């Protein structure tokens, strides 16, 4: 890759290194300059720009990120489309992340421009949580280096996979001493139940008994007879030796003690044994608290079916200091960072609602409802709905109005949500506001799609969602073709209130101009984002006919 000051006569096809705000239009960092861009720069008085030019064998940043992410992402993971050289990995379901740290190191040592950051191995994660981010640092990287890292990522099996939690019936045994309060046992029951809930499991049977070997052995046996596939023993007094009451009870119930103690604090006094193929865990005292402790690490693996023995527990000392200390306060609290403007950052895929505007009267089309006009064997609006249904949008809401029942019938098998706009005759803004009001409070943003733009693909929609990141200043995402802005447009939730104040037959495109610093453009390689079909002539052209009337 050639990087540096680039004369304008060599700049076409180069990647712009720094943004420039010109009189007619802004050219942003990372844009691949075309002839129109070069002309604009020349008209603005530029003779050169700082840019990157790819050489033979180079792989552009997004293409490299997509290839490498696809190679290393294994079972239970999903990958976002690359944007500015970054592709994120997410958990498809709740479970435990598995990978070899040595292999990760080898991946990151190939080239300084290729980086992969992952959550710690064996970390329990929620569905949709980000588990890794792959970033190509420069605008392009050598194809040879991509091939080498691709091989490390793929090898015999993809580097990163997720072992999902397996629904497990759990037996809970709690023992009492003379001074034990029932409220303490009740609290332990609820804390344990909450832990298991996030792992698709539940307490199938609980027994409370005296803190004696005989009573505990009988209680363990009772939980097994009630179908427990994992037994948790919370003793009234902490286990302090392999010959203490709880391990003795496990052995009396026909089991063995596999390991006592762990290099994690809180959690040192945990014990793990087995009766046949069923694990039995002697809980440390900290397990009565909902805060993260060493028991969580063992429980997550057990519920996911990941082996946990002496060797695995012995290796948990790396990062095993979980206790709150002044230089590392509250490491286990779940916090969401905010940029001060109502946009939140969290380690999960953005939840984007798709709003399909399908309420209009099609006045320019004549007597025919353009949304129901047949194109390639199906109604025009269905093309848009199918693209949204196949995308990474978390939901799809169709706004109905004119000929609502017929439009609904054309989409019924796709099972979207619907919102009816009684004021559809008053213009586009009313449908947009109806859709925004219907998507709920738990979304991060919404992509506003027009029903008369059937050429927009799922790939374009997914690229827009991948580019969305309000914390990094990408709160509005708009597609472009040769520098001209098109549709659909993705808006962060922070703009919903402002969008609700729009009136007339207009959308919210003015917000892009009002918030240029928060907008990002996605250049596409076809005319789909500029092509709306709202006249008979446009319909005839789309159908590939030469007739002037699309009928």
Automatic annotation (TrEMBL):
Domain called MoaB/Mog: residue spans: 171-304
Keyword Calcium in annotation: no
Gene3D superfamilies: MoaB/Mog-like domain, Spore Coat Polysaccharide Biosynthesis Protein SpsA, Chain A
Chain intervals for the UniProt region annotation (Disordered): 324-345
MF-aspect GO terms: nucleotidyltransferase activity
Pfam family, one: NTP_transf_3
Top-level lineage group: Bacteria
PANTHER family, per the entry: MOLYBDENUM COFACTOR CYTIDYLYLTRANSFERASE
Name of the protein in its database record: Molybdenum cofactor cytidylyltransferase
Native species: Thalassobaculum litoreum DSM 18839
